[in-house]
Specification:
316 residues, mainly alpha, 15 helices
């Protein structure tokens, strides 16, 4: 394999599966009923709802990105898996809350009832809150990294990716684009640049953070962090445009959730702004930009290159 080539599809599939199995086992351990030191009691219904939202499905792409970036810089795999588990807990929190009636109002997630359908809305809100809190618990634990300054840096990076200037802010922009706030007037039709900013916040910020957290675990230098940030943002853009395309082209069975909902809700996507074929060209352009950002890393970044191609070509 030359330095510019991605890993094979088979190698990527094997790597994703290996990381997914390890993350599933780690999440199951973190979500056990027995309280940790300093806790008083873990209510059984709350833990069951948290497990429903976090276990038993998903590609675990974000933990995979953490682990691969960490590997390039020589970080220990157990540390990378813990950081990956923290990212996945935060991602699962966002899905639990996004599925609520007040947000996207979805009944299915990963082919199963969403948390608020399997339990109830109040439990789903608390389960999401607890998954997010646990993410920071894991990331700030000395088991994730022995150096306190490194742990603080990881917490800051994840906080910035998730908050008002990242994922949550992107969700707010998404709701505004749907016309959810009539008191503020009719929503303006978003152009391509505004849609890309929204998606960079809502989806791309956490994907980019997955890569940079892994690199930070391995004490990567500033130049490497900048290149991986560029990679992560381009990867996130490709992933989200691919998701918008799948909402049009894929079946609910493929996706494990309802499809053909974006246009009905007036969601701001590149498909609605540019048309399907132009959106596909943009998806592929972002994927190639992600690959190009890894030029300095040689063969060591083969899996990350493959992940960029996967983000554009996936079918679910």
């Amino acid at each position: 394999m030359s330095s510019a080539q991605p890993a094979s599809e088979e190698a990527l599939a094997a790597g994703l599966a290996e990381t997914a199995d390890a993350i599933e086992a780690l999440l199951a351990s973190l979500l056990r009923d027995e309280p940790e030191a300093g806790e008083i009691h873990r209510p059984a219904r709350l833990l069951a709802a948290m497990r429903h939202g976090a276990l038993g499905g998903g590609k675990r792409l974000r933990p995979f990105l953490v682990a691969e970036a960490a590997r390039i810089f020589g970080a220990e795999r157990p540390q990378a898996l813990r950081a990956g588990a923290a990212i996945e807990l935060a991602h699962c929190y966002s899905l639990v809350h996004d599925d609520l009636p007040a947000m996207d109002d979805d009944d299915l997630r990963r082919g199963r009832p969403t948390v608020h359908k399997a339990f109830d809305e109040a439990t789903a809100i608390l389960a999401g809150d607890s998954l997010l809190t646990l993410a920071f618990d894991v990331l700030s634990d000395p088991a994730t990294h022995r150096d306190g300054e490194t742990r603080a840096a990881l917490v800051l990076m994840l906080s910035r990716a998730l908050g008002a200037g990242g994922m949550v802010g992107g969700q707010m922009l998404d709701l505004a684009a749907e016309g959810r706030f009539p008191a503020e007037g009719a929503p303006a039709r978003l152009g391509e640049a505004a849609i890309l900013r929204l998606q960079a916040m809502k989806t791309g910020a956490l994907l980019a953070a997955s890569v940079t957290l892994g690199a930070r675990l391995g004490q990567a230098d500033a130049g490497s962090m900048a290149a991986l940030t560029e990679y992560g943002r381009a990867l996130g853009a490709a992933f989200q445009v691919a998701d918008d395309i799948l909402d049009v082209e894929a079946s609910p069975e493929q996706m494990g959730k309802a499809t053909a909902k974006d246009d009905a809700r007036g969601k701001a996507t590149l498909v609605t702004a540019l048309g399907l074929e132009a959106a596909k060209r943009e998806r592929d352009r972002f994927s190639e930009a992600a690959v190009a950002a890894l030029a300095a890393f040689g063969a060591e970044a083969g899996m990350l290159r493959a992940a960029a191609r996967f983000a554009a070509s996936r079918k679910s």
